[in-house]
Amino acid sequence: MRKPFRLFLLCCAACLSGCATAHAGDSPWGVVRKGNDEVQVFYRGAQYAALHPFSSYFRMVYGPSSGWGTSVVLLPIYWSADSPDAEYKDAALHQGGQVSVQEKVSGPDLVLQVQGSVGELSCRGSVRIHPPGKDCSDPAGECIRADVSMSVQAPRRMQSALHDEPGEAFKPVFLSSMYVGKTQWDSRIVSNGVQKQDFSSVPAGPRGQVRRKPSADEGGTGKPTPGLIFSPDSSARKLILYGGDSAWKPNAPTVEIDFLEPSAQALKARGMKLASMGWRTDSADPNDDNIGCWLGTNAIIERYRYSVEVRRQTQEP
Prior knowledge:
By secondary structure, the protein is mainly beta. It has three helices and 23 strands. Strands 1, 2, 3, 4, 5, 6, 7, 8, 13, 18, 21 and 22 form a twelve-stranded antiparallel β-sheet that branches. Strands 9-10-11-12-23-20-19-16-17 form a nine-stranded antiparallel β-sheet, with no helix packed on it.
């Protein structure tokens, strides 16, 4: 997943690789498809986004000088409680399903329409990408914003088949990133708008497990669960993964998520709230994502919407 991207001039990419391009009249937007592996989005000849249909991982950069970094997983993620594998405490993770992608120009924006499934969930949604420098917060214009909308259909049995870990059963928002040390990272600090956590202070946990309840030797000692970032009590509707410069990668972008709908009141009426959480996996490979941060809840949200802003990190977070 972390193979480096290259920036292509749109016309050269089409001619040299034989990939199809999509235009709409005189629109500045263009799309290049690299087979079934990648959908690349260009604006005035420079690449600003990439979507991997086989996993629904989506990334953006704030401009030609930006590095590639944190990904947004477009399809929701959930833990089901129907696995006999004791390693996962009777839970199975469903993450990164395949999607089909269709593009269209809508006014000044480019819209990627996606459809796919993950586990037993059928999903349909869109990613509306605004022109670079528009509708985002960087006064210098080194930013880009996309609005993500998703509809989810699930079998009736699914609500009762979710795992019961608070904040982890259903994750409508998930950011995938990398931090393996102080000189090798794509992001190094996460914030939920209230709290901040430096990844260097998070002890790495084992790969591929649901958050476990404290074991007997941890109970009452205040010892942090290895790998855990924040806790299920950390209620929030925002996630920010801060980028910057490291020896591994200069100009890694900052990625900010704002959860827009449903509102906190609408979720509360259903007995739900969003928790901001994360996990650091033990890894020494900078080509392997080992940071996951998410907004999660205890039940499936059938329709939701959030914004993604990617910008240059110009000061200490």
